Amino acid sequence: MNSVEHAIQIVRDSVKSFSGTEVISLKNAIGRTLSKGVASPLNLPSFRQSAMDGYALNLHDSDSYEVIGEVKAGDPIDITLKPGQASRIFTGARVPNSANSIVIQEKVSREGDQLKLEAEPKTGDFIRNIGEQIAKGSIPLDKGHTINPSSLGLLKSLGIQEVEVVKNMKAAIIVTGNELVESGQTLKEGQIYESNSAVIEAALKSKGIQEINKITVRDNLEDTISKLRTALDENNLVLLSGGISVGEYDFVGQALKALEVEELFYKVLQKPGKPLFFGKRGGTYVFALPGNPASTLTCFYVYVNLLIDLFKSAEHPGLLRVKFPIAQDYENKFGRALFLKARVNNNSVEILDHQASSTMISFAKANALVYIPAEVTEVLAGDLVETIILPYGS
């Protein structure tokens, strides 16, 4: 059986980055990956800018100054200050060309137009110089950067409206199981509400993938083969939920073989998510995910998330992994690697209750997964453990 490390390496070795690109509006760019670096069309700031509320000064040898005007953010005027003169100024406002320092308002006293300094200012205090943050022509965001709210704000501040990004994957979600019912319908004995497709779809959209086909398959081989064939022909990524185990009515494995999907690995020595399949046919990648909800989401975060990042040549593929001290003792009784739902709090990580692969309550409260390798049988409170930081963790 494959180790977690071996399975991850297979994913890394198997994925070829996609070369197709497109130009899109910045408003649609969250989660998308830049296909080339973005050059700044201007200096930021583009003018000498005040970093604080206070007074712009033309320095001289006294601590007394005459206030001759005021500059607010957005004012285009350039007040000419002689040595010993000052102007009221606000954060973000243009600093007069004749000013060479700013004193913050907490360090002065004022009576009428007379200003008294309580601290000696230095040349350049609280002045943001032209291009101090970003110089015109520099590359603030490199190829492979995935647009997040912060980088979107940066690009907007540069006046950029469009970016060139790697073309998105087209993905299909295939859900199997006669026992599954859409929410809103009345449950009959033995039925459950289907949630995996919603979980997978939300996770795909968080990666910037918008073109997602959801397909429901009944538990028979013919329907599984037919719908899987169409999904393989029309998508870059196919995610199957359920039906990959060895039960009498689990037809996914048979359908994958019938359609000549190359098996890259099947089954990983991990909990949850042992019956995980990864393969490809042509340029289409296939994950057959376990049917239990927590197993599905764990496998998505560890393997599918990595594949998507590699496909679009992301700058840092895969979720962030850091070391945190664990808050409690934990025994690994299973002889498998563990991915445990957890919360990072106050520079330590706590394992949550309800770790069963069939329950999502711990995932709903988690902001991390703690990884315990198969060969580790016990960790003690205070030990450093590998912690995978989840996106959108609460």
From TrEMBL:
Q: Which domain of life is it from?
A: Bacteria
The question of whether Magnesium is a record keyword is answered with yes
Any Pfam family matching the protein: MoeA_N
SUPFAM superfamilies, per the entry: MoeA C-terminal domain-like, MoeA N-terminal region -like, Molybdenum cofactor biosynthesis proteins
**Per its UniProt record, what SMART domains does this chain match?**
MoCF_biosynth (SM00852)
Task: State the Gene3D superfamilies in the record.
Answer: MoaB/Mog-like domain (3.40.980.10), MoeA, C-terminal, domain IV (2.40.340.10), Molybdopterin biosynthesis moea protein, domain 2 (3.90.105.10), Molybdopterin biosynthesis moea protein, domain 3 (2.170.190.11)
Q: What is its EC number?
A: 2.10.1.1
User: Which reactions does this protein catalyse?
Assistant: adenylyl-molybdopterin + molybdate = Mo-molybdopterin + AMP + H(+)
**Listed pathway(s):** Cofactor biosynthesis; molybdopterin biosynthesis
Q: Which UniProt keywords apply?
A: Magnesium, Metal-binding, Molybdenum, Molybdenum cofactor biosynthesis, Transferase
The answer to whether keyword Transit peptide applies is no
**Cofactor(s) annotated in UniProt:** Mg(2+)
Enzyme class, one word? transferase
Domain MoaB/Mog: start-end pairs = 172-310
Recorded hits in PANTHER family, A to Z, give: GEPHYRIN, MOLYBDOPTERIN BIOSYNTHESIS PROTEIN
Role this protein plays: Catalyzes the insertion of molybdate into adenylated molybdopterin with the concomitant release of AMP.
Q: Which family does it belong to?
A: Belongs to the MoeA family.
Q: What is this protein called?
A: Molybdopterin molybdenumtransferase
